[in-house]
């Protein structure tokens, strides 16, 4: 039995659009059910169904691919774990790599000679070892090859812990990045290995050592700050987006007196306390004389331009959660943030 899902990554993140299922005959009854985060269940419209050479092609309306969904084909039920392959637009531009403990996707430009490199660090809940969720879950990384075709794009996948533990501990001020199952997320040793890979690519003449950049969102925003600490002297500039603020990352931020960085986040999002520490950290850098420390707090109107938190009658909790998607305007180059990053050079 072969079951392939088809998807793409628009602004709202990983979006399913159909399936291809091997079968002996044309299916008679096909349905797709999606369970939303709030517990509601809905049916996704089947736009078309065709059968040829033992393959049933099912085209659906767009649906949240990361939600809990169930495909029913003549009574047989399939979920994401049953997929034999996942085809997502843009993902095939990235080769699968493994070096030491680091697993990652790498886009390689066709342009010859030492090229710039962007290191992309995904957000929480997208770790593991499937080498697709980390770049398909949210808008951004899969679009980078079109936006920066002459850059290397390196997208490692961080170790993940049990999601029940992740959600239970979410919002705590002190993330230890280690538990009974071992280290997870963007912990320092893992980032050190990643920085080592980049330094090797520089020594091999593949990467321009004056133009290495790092960006990420949420947990990956915190990872971006941590990478600036671990990989001191490696990065020309950084864009941490809605970075998780802990005592560690706050202290790292305050110490980046020579770094070029631009933090972007919403006017308020699902962890309200982070704004005080981000603002305090940036102000501390400016007081220390860092004129390359920038901060953007997106207004409700700016977020609405990208369809973020525009639904009527949103609860305050849901509005704050939606506001977290500040990587969408950032990776669309709102305020020229990404253009600024990719124009910076490192003084070597």
The helicity comes to: 25-40%
CATH architecture name of the largest domain: 3-Layer(aba) Sandwich
Low-confidence stretches: none
Kindly report the spatial arrangement of strands forming the biggest sheet. 10-11-13-12-16-17-18-19
DSSP E strands, number: 19
The backbone outline, from C-alpha atoms, is: globular
- Count of spatially separate domains: 2
CATH topology of the largest domain: Rossmann fold
Strand content: 25-35%
CATH superfamily of the largest domain, called what? Alpha/Beta hydrolase fold, catalytic domain
What's the main sheet like? 8 strands, mixed
**Which class do the helix and strand fractions yield?**
alpha/beta
The N- to C-terminal Cα distance equals 55 Å
Mean pLDDT: 93
SS field, number of helical segments: 11
Written overview of the protein:
The protein is α/β, with parallel strands linked by helices. The protein folds into two domains: 3-86, Immunoglobulin-like, CATH 2.60.40; 90-343, Rossmann fold, CATH 3.40.50.1820. It contains eleven helices and 19 strands. The strands form four sheets. Strands 10-11-13-12-16-17-18-19 form an eight-stranded mixed beta sheet, sandwiched between helices. It starts with a strand and ends in a 5-residue tail after the last helix.
């Amino acid at each position: 039995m072969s079951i392939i899902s088809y998807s793409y990554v628009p602004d709202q993140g990983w979006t399913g659009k159909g399936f291809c299922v091997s079968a002996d005959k044309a299916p008679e009854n096909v349905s797709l059910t999606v369970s939303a985060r709030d517990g509601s269940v809905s049916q996704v419209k089947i736009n078309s169904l065709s059968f040829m050479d033992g393959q049933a092609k099912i085209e659906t309306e767009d649906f949240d691919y990361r939600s809990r969904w169930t495909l029913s084909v003549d009574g047989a039920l399939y979920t994401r774990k049953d997929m034999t392959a996942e085809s997502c637009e843009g993902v095939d531009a990235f080769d699968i790599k493994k070096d030491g403990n680091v697993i990652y996707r790498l886009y390689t430009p066709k342009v010859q000679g030492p090229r710039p490199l962007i290191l992309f660090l995904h957000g929480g809940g997208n770790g593991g070892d499937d080498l697709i969720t980390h770049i398909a879950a949210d808008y951004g990384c899969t679009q980078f090859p079109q936006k920066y075709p002459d850059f290397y794009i390196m997208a490692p996948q961080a170790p993940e812990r049990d999601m029940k533990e992740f959600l239970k501990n979410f919002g705590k001020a002190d993330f230890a990045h280690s538990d009974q199952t071992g280290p997870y997320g963007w912990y320092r040793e893992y980032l050190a290995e990643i920085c080592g890979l980049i330094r090797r690519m520089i020594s091999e003449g593949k990467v321009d050592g004056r133009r290495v950049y790092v960006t990420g969102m949420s947990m990956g925003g915190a990872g971006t700050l941590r990478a600036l600490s671990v990989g001191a002297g490696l990065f020309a500039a950084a864009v941490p987006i809605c970075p998780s603020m802990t005592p560690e990352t706050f202290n790292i931020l305050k110490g980046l007196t020579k770094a070029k960085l631009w933090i972007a986040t919403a006017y308020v999002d699902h962890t309200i306390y982070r704004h005080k520490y981000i603002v305090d950290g940036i102000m501390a850098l400016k007081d220390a004389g860092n004129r390359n420390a920038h901060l953007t707090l997106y207004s409700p109107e700016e977020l609405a331009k990208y369809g973020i938190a525009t639904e009527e009658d949103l609860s305050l909790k849901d509005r704050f959660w939606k506001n977290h998607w500040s990587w969408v305007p950032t990776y669309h180059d709102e305020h020229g943030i990404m253009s600024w990053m990719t124009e910076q050079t490192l003084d070597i």
